[in-house]
Write a structure and sequence with these properties.
By secondary structure, the protein is α+β, with helices and mostly antiparallel strands. The protein has one domain. The protein is 40% helix and 18% strand. The N and C termini lie far apart (81 Å). The relative contact order is 0.14.
Length: 159
């Protein structure tokens, strides 16, 4: 009688390995997407914190918050561009009429919105120029847009 040597794997064994690899890959992809989203949100919150510090330094040096592009340019502030939704207008800056308060509105690439008023950041919704200015009391009437989706892209004061 001859003994038959088994070599290789059966189809069932190979299918089990493929299924296990597929499940592990799905878990890794979901975890990666969550980590990426968290990283974008953290970068945007860090940008807002840095902006608040820069704008406070500007106020100490000049007696008021920045009113326009030239003043914002002088702050030498930059954003983490890849963390913002660039398919829409973004990073709205709105000072109060008397330049004693300011509001900022932003949206992350993961569609999370934030408003910051005088250095305090909170969740946002319905992000727009008007809604950002409405965060002030009384509402601000003008300001600047850090990202224009119509073609000009990021403003100099955000780079």
């Amino acid at each position: 009688m001859h003994k038959r040597l088994q070599q290789g794997f059966t189809i069932v064994e190979l299918l089990i390995v493929v299924v296990v690899i597929g499940v592990l890959a799905a878990i890794v992809i979901v975890a990666y997407n969550g980590i990426t989203a968290s990283a974008h949100e953290t970068a945007v919150r860090a940008d807002l914190s840095n902006f608040a510090k820069k704008v406070e330094v500007y106020k100490v040096q000049n007696g008021a918050y920045p009113s326009g592009t030239a003043q914002l340019d002088s702050m030498q502030f930059s954003v983490t561009e890849g963390s913002y939704d660039q398919t829409r207008n973004n990073f709205y800056y709105c000072p109060s009429a008397d330049l004693t308060e300011y509001a900022v509105g932003v949206e992350t690439v993961t569609d999370v919105q934030y408003y910051m008023v005088n250095g305090t950041t909170g969740p946002g919704s319905s992000l727009s120029y008007a809604n950002t200015c409405a965060e002030l009391s009384p509402a601000g009437t003008g300001g600047n847009m850090g990202h224009d989706s119509a073609g000009t892209g990021w403003a100099n004061w955000t780079q």
